[in-house]
Amino acid sequence: MQQTQKTKGETKACKRLNAIGSSKPVWDALVARLLSRGLLDASFISGPDNGLAGLSQAELVDCVKRAVHGPVSWRPVGTEDTFEPRVTRSLVVHTHPSGDNTPIFDVKAVPDGRHLLVHSGHTLECWDMQTGTKIWNSPQSATLWRLGDFAFEQQEVGTLNFEVFELDIRGAAVAARQLCWFEIQHVPWTVKIASFCGSLIAFTFNEAYSRMFLVDWRGSAGIVLFLNDSYKQREVALTQEFLVLALTRDSGSIQLRVVNLASEIIQRMVPIHQRTMLTREVPDYGVSVLDPAVPTQKVARGRPDGSDVIMQRLAVFPSVLSDEAHRIWLVIVELEPLGVVPSASKLHGFSLSSTSKSTGMKPQLGVLGVKTTLPPRHSNLASSNWMVTSSGHQCIRTQTMPDAPGACCILHPEGATGTFNFLPRGRPIMSSTASSACIHVEDETITVLYFD
C-alpha cells in the first residue's frame, strides 16, 4: 500500500512537471531571458513584441534548442558521420570604413544579432545589419587601432593605449559615451590578444613573455601575472567571477585552472592612472601563488611518440539554461610528426558553476566529456581561422589555392563533419556564437550567412 501511494505521488509530480513544461508562458519567459542575456540572436525572432507573441510554442522550443545545440542543419541525422550545412538567408552590408575605401580589418557581431562592429586600421564603426546603414563611428585616429571584445585598443612601441566606449543602440540615434582611457607606458612586450568581461580586461603578450596584464577599468586598478618558464603556451578567458587558464608545459601536458577573481586577483591589484608605467608601478604576481577556485584539471599528457600537441582554442560561454553556470570548451590538436598537419582534434567539455547566491554552494567544475574529431588535413591552423561556438561546434577555415573558392569545415561535437564554400579571395570566416551565423568579409563587403 505504501509503495502504491508513493508511485501515485510520483505520478502526480511528473504530471505537474509536464504541465509546467507544456506551458507556453514558461517558454516565452525562457526565450525572453535568452534574448536579454545575448544568448539568442534576435534576428531569428520575427513576430511583434520582439517576436515572442507571434511564435508558437513549438517555435519557442526550437529557439531554445538552437541556443543549446546549434542550427538543425549542423546536426547529423541518426548515425551519419556527415551533414550538409544549409544557408537559409544572408545579409550583405557594403561598407567603406573611414570613407576612403580602407579595407576591413575585423568584424564582430553584437549579441543582439542586429548590429556589427566594423573596424579599419583607424576607425571603429557600428552598422545596422537590417538596413545596411552606418549608425556610429569613432573619431579617426592617426595611428593603428585593434578591435578587442567590445573595446578597442591602440598599440605603439612601448605603449599600450586602450579605451572603453558604451554605445546605446536601443533608439533611432546612437548615444556613445567614453567610459575610460588609459595609456600604459613602459610595456616591454607585444600585446597579442585582449579578453573583455564587465569591468575587467585581460591583456596577454606574445609567447616569449609569460605574463598577462589584468585591468579593472572601472576601479582604475591593475595587476601583472606571470607563469614560470616550464609553461610554453597559455590561453585565457574571463567570466564575471573567474579567470580561466589553459596552460601547456614543456612536457606537452595541459591543465585547466580556474581562479576566483574577487578573492585572489582583484584584492591584489594596485591603483593605476592614465599614464601608468607598467614595469615600474605594477608588481608581478606568480600564478602559482593563486589558490584555484576548483581543483586543477589535468586535461592531457605529453605524447610518448614525441609528436606535438597544441591548444587550439579555449572558449567560455554562459550556460543557456542557468544564470550561475558556464560551459567551457577546450580544443587540443594533435599534429603528425612533421608538426604541420593535424592528425586529430579533441574537444574537452566542462561545466563551471558559480558560487550559488541562494545556497552558498561553492563553485564546481564538472567534466562533460572528451570527443575526438578529425579535422581536414588542410585545416588552417592559425587560431583566427579555428573557432568554437557555444554549442561546441568547431568552425575551421581550410587552406585553399589563391583565387579558389574558400571553404569552411564544421565539426559536430560528436565528430560528424559538414562543409560549405564561400566566395574566392574572402577573408576568414568569423562565427557569431549566439546564432552560429558566419560572417564573410571580402574587400569592403560583409556577408552574414544564417543557417537552418
TrEMBL record:
InterPro entries: Quinoprotein_ADH-like_sf (IPR011047). This is Uncharacterized protein. It comes from Mycena chlorophos (Agaric fungus).
